Automatic annotation (TrEMBL):
Keywords from the named record: Hydrolase, Protease, Serine protease, Signal
Protein family: Belongs to the peptidase S8 family.
Every Inhibitor I9 domain range: 28-106
Domain Subtilisin-like protease fibronectin type-III, first and last residues per copy: 661-757
Leader peptide range in chain numbering: 1-25
InterPro entries assigned to the protein according to its UniProt record, in alphabetical order: Peptidase_S8/S53_dom, Peptidase_S8/S53_dom_sf, Peptidase_S8_Ser-AS, Peptidase_S8_subtilisin-rel, Peptidases_S8_3, S8pro/Inhibitor_I9, S8pro/Inhibitor_I9_sf, SBT
Recorded superkingdom: Eukaryota
Domain Peptidase S8/S53: 132-582
GO term, biological process aspect, one: proteolysis
Coiled-coil regions, chain positions: none
Protein name: Subtilisin-like protease SBT3.18
Annotated source species: Salvia divinorum
Family annotation (Pfam families): fn3_6, Inhibitor_I9, Peptidase_S8
Active site feature: D141, H218, S546
């Protein structure tokens, strides 16, 4: 959702991520101790109290300060501490890290058809209709609206899996017997961390449900996208009509409310998020979908980093939103090598809306909008309503004139860049009949607003601006069109790589639909953030990596159902190595607001292809030791690592293992100065145990690439083979990345890995000449 430095992209009315600081002298800190090796949670809790009591006068004070005791899948606690107490605990034996609990923020009918999972109500792909009922998807978000038809039991839904240990918690307007079923099998809420930072939730000042019920709409939207049931009649303002469903419509849903309404937005305390991780893994979820995060630079010492590390060790796949701070580089969030970070791209669906000029049958303009009923009005002059001639919501800028019956035209590039949302609100303040917002052609978007809004490109806008003011315009109802524009296209707001933690593994991992996504909505949440918008809707259309994340989570659930023994790394590899890098016309994937083609920093390995991911042929199965090697390079000690992992027989290698040797599905070398060899291990998971794969290489510019061996021969006795890639610089360069790929193929499967290389030979060659 994209204003560059902001992760809450107000333009698309989508929520994302940035800090909210507490102002008190004491703050909530998370004290991380590693894996929960005690099988008795009570013993773990007492251990935490003893640790905390060391910086208080008594156990009673320690218990009062404690916010959470994490005692199921990980060991640690959250407590209200001052800086001195936190510093003492940091240097206490057995403590791995102590970090502030910051605030995170929340980052359809057509998208599944677009990705190849076609479906009508009575039929469809076997992948969606026959898989998923044994898989449980945990959604970390703002809760759920349980009455939405997306969460109803479909006929023939079997009993809840016996391994499920979770529950539905009673709370405000949430009755477990009434609102949970064989589809929505879990609903919990976590607010202690939020309330320690902001005080007890006051529902009179800030409407909220003290339960898993969703008042923001965001959680309902993401949950229904990941695993919503099939619904016959979905749509918004007469557009995008059809059968709605999630990626895994037969999967079970468990909702963990960690984000609360705060100033009309969603704020998520890290202490609450880590508590959700701790309980979700204990409850028995198979997939965690988290459309939340923080501004770059990313940190390993975070609830997302710690919680996902332990979840993956327990066999739970974790999918994150990549963030909405694009198009700047190194803005990608949730870059942990054990998780999946998802970028956002467009669909092949658009909403063309025609603007006719009265009395001139040849003059018409076409933009994007969600307008159910046509409107007419005279073309208005902006300077008649705003002193500086710029559409802005500042009351001091208003002339006081009414624009009733008029259609206002606003340009995004008038003065400093004008945000659509400010222009829309300004149009409502002067009572305009409609708004035509002129913006770059490469940023298509359709969204509901408090006044009818049509977005057109600068070329058309310039022509429209030359018409005489007072000319009568007619805006026709929006249409729903398919395959009229190139897709997928990388969303301008989607955060980009390389990773700010370590550029030697590629993030984001993959791209999925995240623009104009239709899904279920809370009827208590208006469709816009504008004051006075009291409309109630059951479906809403949002844009952001918050929307692309649950698309991948749904596909992960399908793969997990089809391959229950696959590890989270194997599932991630299947997704990444089968992703495609062309649009619906066979051209390279384009990038919004740019003339360039997408590269791996935009979309990772490519755009998700669910059907191919079900049968990838070969996979890169990253191990816990791979992650340990990475953590060793990040400065963690061997003693700390032994406390963090399930199997403590791990150690840092005698010779440091470079991050580029992590057995990841992509290959990144951020500092190529001389010939460098990278190794990877592939495992045959195809239907035939005997298979022969041949390699093909696309070399990055100025880099010689040699792969050995060039043929991989798998057999029942040899299901894993290691190969090596030697890269040698052929040019003088510094600070510029180039891209290529390595693909293994048996004629049917095509196992592709992006090759990302930054040649840094300028200093080396200059020194040799001197």
């Amino acid at each position: 959702m994209g204003t560059g430095s902001q992760c809450f992209w107000i333009l698309s009315l989508t929520l994302s991520l940035y800090f909210i600081h507490s102002t008190s002298s004491s703050h909530v800190y998370i004290v991380y101790l590693g894996h929960a090796h005690h099988t008795n949670p009570l013993l773990t809790y007492e251990h935490h109290v003893r640790h905390l009591a060391s910086v208080f006068h008594s156990k009673e004070e320690a218990k009062e300060a404690m916010v959470y005791s994490y005692k199921h899948s990980l060991s640690g606690f959250a407590a209200t501490l001052n800086a001195s107490q936190a510093a003492i605990l940091t240097n206490t034996r057995g403590v791995i890290s102590v970090f502030r609990s910051r605030m995170m923020k929340l980052c359809t009918t057509r998208s599944w058809d677009f990705m190849g999972l076609t479906l009508d109500y009575n039929g469809g792909t076997p992948l969606q209709l026959s898989h998923g009922e044994d898989v449980i998807v945990g959604v970390f978000d703002s809760g759920v609206w349980p009455e939405s038809p997306s969460f109803h039991e479909e006929p023939g839904t079997p009993l809840v899996p016996k391994r499920w240990k979770g529950a539905c918690e009673r709370g405000d307007d949430f009755d477990p017997k009434k609102h949970c079923n064989r589809k929505l099998i879990g609903a919990k809420y976590f607010k202690s961390g939020f309330e320690r930072s902001y005080g007890k939730i006051d529902k009179t000042k800030n409407p909220e449900y003290i339960s898993a019920r969703d008042i923001l709409g965001h959680g309902t939207h993401t949950a229904s996208t990941a695993a919503g049931s099939r619904v016959r009649t979905a749509g918004l303002s007469g557009a995008a009509g059809g059968v709605a469903r999630g990626g895994a419509p037969r999967a079970r849903l468990a909702v963990y409310k960690v984000c609360w309404s705060y100033g009309g937005e969603g704020a998520c305390a890290e202490a609450d998020v880590l508590a959700a991780f701790d309980e979700a893994v204990r409850d028995g979820v198979d997939v965690i979908s988290a459309s939340i995060g923080r501004k770059a630079p990313a940190r390993l010492e975070s609830a997302a980093g710690v919680g996902s590390f332990h979840a993956v060790q327990m066999g739970v796949s974790v999918v994150f939103a990549a963030g909405n701070a694009g198009p700047d580089l190194s803005t990608v969030d949730n870059v942990f090598p054990w998780g999946i970070s998802v970028a956002a791209s467009t669909l092949d669906r658009s909403f063309p809306t025609e603007i006719l000029v009265d009395g001139d049958g040849a003059a018409s303009f076409v933009g994007e909008a969600l307008i159910e009923k046509g409107v007419s009005g005279a073309l208005a002059r902006t300077r008649d309503f705003f002193y500086n001639g710029i559409c802005d919501m500042d009351n001091r800028n208003l002339t006081g004139r009414s624009a009733s019956g008029l259609i206002l035209v606003c340009f995004s590039n008038d003065g400093s860049e004008t945000l659509s949302v400010r222009a829309e609100y300004a149009a409502s303040l002067i009572n305009a009949t409609a708004l035509i917002f002129v913006q770059p052609i490469t940023r298509p978007l359709a969204a509901l607003s408090i006044v009818p809004v049509v977005r057109i490109d600068l070329i058309q806008g310039t022509k429209l601006g030359k018409l005489n003011y007072g000319t009568k315009l007619h805006i026709r109802p929006s249409e729903t069109a398919l395959k009229r524009s190139s897709a997928p296209m990388v969303a301008a707001f989607s955060s980009r790589g390389p990773s700010s933690i370590s550029p030697d593994f590629l993030k984001p991992d993959i791209s999925a639909p995240g623009v104009n996504i239709l899904a279920s909505w809370s009827p208590k949440a208006p469709p816009t953030i504008f004051p006075g918008d009291s409309r109630s809707i059951k479906w809403n259309m949002l844009s952001g990596t918050s929307m692309s994340c649950p698309h991948v989570s749904g596909v992960v659930a399908l793969i997990k159902s089809a391959h229950p023994l696959w590890s989270p790394a194997a599932i991630r590899s299947a997704l990444l190595t089968t992703a495609h890098n062309t649009d619906i016309y066979g051209d390279g994937i384009a990038v919004e607001a740019s003339e360039k083609s997408a590269d791996p920093f935009d979309i990772g390995s490519g755009h998700i292809d669910p059907l191919k991911a079900l049968d990838p042929g070969l996979i890169y199965d990253t191990t816990t030791q791979d992650y340990v090697n990475f953590l060793c390079n990040m400065g963690y000690s061997e003693a700390q690592l032994q406390a963090m992992v399930i199997c403590p027989q791990v150690r840092c290698p005698d010779e440091p293992e470079p991050n580029w040797n992590i057995n990841y599905p992509s290959i990144s070398v951020s500092d190529l100065r001389c010939a460098t060899t990278v190794k990877r291990t592939l495992k045959n998971v195809g239907h035939s145990k005997t298979a022969v794969y041949y390699v093909s290489v696309v070399k990055p510019h100025g880099v010689e690439v040699v792969v050995w061996p060039r043929v991989l021969m798998f057999s029942p006795f040899k299901e894993e083979i290691t190969y090596r890639v030697t890269m040698s610089p052929l040019k003088i360069s510094r600070g510029r990345y180039d891209f290529g790929s390595i693909t293994w193929s048996d004629g049917f499967h095509h196992v592709r890995s992006p090759l990302v290389v930054q040649v840094n030979t300028n200093e080396v060659l200059t020194a040799s000449v001197i």
